[in-house]
Prior knowledge:
Oligomer: single chain
Strand content: 15-25%
Radius of gyration: 27 Å
Largest sheet: 5 strands, parallel
Number of domains: 2
Amino acid sequence: MGEQSSQKPEIIIVDDSRVIRAAARKMLGEGYVIHEAVDGSEGWEQIQRNGAISVVFTDIQMPVMNGMELLAAIRGAEDERIAELPVIMITGQGDTEETKRKVFEAGATDFIAKPFSSIDLLTRAKSYAQLNARMVELEKQTGHDKLTGLFNAKSFEEQGDKSLSFAARHSVSISTVYLEIENFQKIFLTHGKSVATQIIIAVARRFEAVLRTEDVAARIGVAKYALLLPLTNHTHAKIVVDRVRSSINKLVFDTGKEKIRIVLAAGMTSPEAREEMCFAEVMMQADTALKRALGKAGEKIASYFEVQPKPAVGEEAGDGGDAGQALDRELEQAFKRILEGDYFKIEKCHLPALVERLMPFMDYVKNQDNL
Length: 371
């Protein structure tokens, strides 16, 4: 029963009239999950918080934040899912034709007049909920972000699973990088959606210019991107990241009033590929590194294996156990390269840990009289 309920389309009714909200809930309750808000401000909070809401019904005249203001917030949202939500305005007898015209020009999807019938409400709810669902599904099927043309998050993970499996079977390197435009929300709020959109697209185009053919670039958030770098170890991934960040950090956007320069933060991971590893784990590593990079005062770049705390002696591996084991495997591979004379192939990020592991042995050697 709970599973069936969770598959119902979710709709929000924003109206300061308890009678109107109750009537809508009664008419739609059987086929939809209904959310309610007493004004535009409360409705806006719910819309941002709940990604499952597929249709918005809102009154025009409300206290605190009216329907026009709510519509403007939705259409101007930096999140495309929110910006493209169907918004049906509930009009009253006091709303003039001029008001309706302005609301329509501001981006209203449709109107419904009070008092509305169950047929009117059900028809609009069904039509626009289905339309929204088709749009979401179409974007998933195409596998690409419609704004930038890059892969979307779902397709990126699919590509990552294939590349990780190949890397594990053939014992080759693979790296993943998460990148995010620093302070993007401030840029959006200060300069508006148009400028913000130009920046998102411009960054995506720079990826296409500097990456190799075999590399995969995706947009996985509003101002968040991801790179999949097959056959690339940590050292070479760092070179790629430096090249990407250098190119993008040179971008200057002229709004007419001021020039905007952006900073791209980067979090990277180059795990040892294993058959039992899933790409979702690699993505979590990259995201952890990105959060560290965004919090840094200096250069906005961090590697996952550089940020993990060392476990205490005798402490059992917990959430960081897998990361510690992965690092141990990386160091074992580095020791193997030393023995084979390929020490120049050791990644620089592992040198401090190697020296730390070797120091007790070197002290032991110095204390042997017969050596």
